[in-house]
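Record 1 of the preview.
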Amino acid sequence: MRCSDDNPRSPGRRPGVPALLVLAGLPALCLVASFVTACAPAATDPAPAAIVVTDDAGRTVRLAQPARRVFSVIPSLTETIAALEPTALVARTRFDRAPEFAHLPSLGASFQPSLEALAELRPDLVISWADPGQRTLSDRMEALGLPTYRADVQTTEGMRSHIRRLGALLGREHRAAALTASIDRGLARVAAAVRGRPPVSLYYAVWHDPPQTTGPGTFLHEMIEIAGGRNIFADAGRPWPQVSLEVILRRDPEALVLARQAADESPVRWLDEAGWRDLEAVRRDRVLIVESDLFHRPGPRLADAARQLARFLHGEGILPVENAGAGSVGGSRPTSSRAQ
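->
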């Protein structure tokens, strides 16, 4: 994150929250292809006569040879492709605004890319949504004769599965294995650093009006636990539940995390409103404002997000600031106060 959307507000049409998560605000980013390339053989892995994978819609994607002209409407998977095969991307959406993508033509919004322009680029692989709500877009891509891989990224295991499958489709299985191992090492370092510390109760604000958060069965919930937090809505019956401010106040978390949807977004005024300002986390100014392009994209930089969260919850001294690795990023610094 289906992990992104044109409207960064929330799900429901408002598109689904997982879609919201990976599209929101985009500061400058440093992709990880050079790191992965250094960790794995540069040569293309031997390709079978045909490459066959099953996507998240249960459909078979069959390629005669590794894909070398790829378009993705899902930003987290766009970053994954860039890490595995930097030269494979032939276009971007308007949400892929990192400098590394600036040279690529933009085909417009993630849910409504220009299919005419896409057809002219003659991609040999397209990454689209498995979400039934976006079935029309994926069907239209296939109607153009474009091999289409439909994806839904909800969990960290789902992220790993996509890295493996995209590695196969690109003929970069070794790089995919190296990338997955690097992410797992980064997450393990974070988990080890907070082991034995009391978990900090936390509310993660996906959106504020109406309040919406993350529940079990999502990569964000898993990341909170890895970083030594306790999601106050771990008992939610849905992955992305809408909740009431009254319940948030009753559970009164020690810390509050919210994602800035754009690098130039105005200060978070709503935390000064009645109810929100009464939370212990707000009264004590224990509020972390993060870049949503880092925290809401389950991909190569997931461990960087977990590291930032752990340092906020348990102190900056528990983990060093890392400027290189599977999830290095430039310009995505957390803000530990809502005054921006």
